[in-house]
C-alpha cells in the first residue's frame, strides 16, 4: 500500500504523520506517479509551521522525481513510463509519498543523463538558482555577490553557476566544515557569521566598495548586514527567511544606505509561464549533464524519518541537498 507523510495542524516537526495512503485512479488532467526520490526543502517547513497558510489536513512536500504509472483523460504532455520530476507550490503538495495522484501540468520530463536522486535534490533548488542567475540581475563578468547559506543546496548551485559567469563570490557559513565545502564549490571567500562581522568583512574584501548583489535566504538575522554589505545602488535579493520574517521595514532605509534596490522573488512567478519554465529547466539540466555544475546530496532519509529530517534541516545540520529515498 502507498505511504505518505501528512499533517493536520501547524507546529514543529512532531506534527508530521507517516502512514498509509489511498491512491485512486487519475482524473482529467492527472497522472498516477510512483516516486523514486523526494526532495526535502526548507520551504517545506514554512507549510508545516504556518508561514505559508494552507488548508489542513494536507500532504507535505512539493518536489519529487519518479515514473508515470497511469494517465487520466486530457493528458498530453507525459505518457506511461516517462521519467519525470516536479516542483511547485500548493498545486504539488503531497510529495512526501511513495506514489500519488498529481496534475500533469507541473511535470518536467527528466533527461536520461539526470538520475532520479539528483532530480529530487535539485529541481526546486536548480530552478531557483536558474532564475537567480538568469532573471534577477544582468550579471557582468567581474561583479561580486554576497551569498548567504553558501553551503546549502541553493548556495552550492549558485556559487558554481556564478563562477561560470565570471563573478566573484563571497559566501557566508556557520561552521568551518561548511566553509571548506563552499570554497570547493566556487566561493572565493567565506565569512563565518558565528564569529565574524559580515558587513565589516565584506567591506574589507571589496576595498570598501561593497558587493553588487546580495542573495539572502536567511532573512531576519542577516537583513541589515546584507544591506550594509551592498555598494551604492546595489541589489538586495531576499529569497528566503530561514531565521524569521523581516518585520517593520521602512523603505527609507534603502535611500539612507545608498539608494539600494530590494526584491523578494518567489519561484512560482518564474515558472508560471511553461515556456520560461522549460527554458530554465533546460539550462540547469544542461549544466548538470555536462558536469559544469555538481549536485551534492549529503543527506538521505527514509520517508518515515521525516520528523528527524525536518529537525536536522532547521538545526542547520545539513550541507548541500537532502532527499528521501523511496
From TrEMBL:
Pfam families: ADH_N, ADH_zinc_N
Membrane-spanning segments: none
Protein keywords: NADP, Oxidoreductase
Stored PROSITE patterns: QOR_ZETA_CRYSTAL
A GO cellular component annotation in the UniProt record: cytosol
GO MF term set: mRNA 3'-UTR AU-rich region binding; NADPH binding; quinone reductase (NADPH) activity; zinc ion binding
Domain Enoyl reductase (ER): 11-324
This protein's name: Quinone oxidoreductase
Organism expressing this protein natively: Limnohabitans radicicola
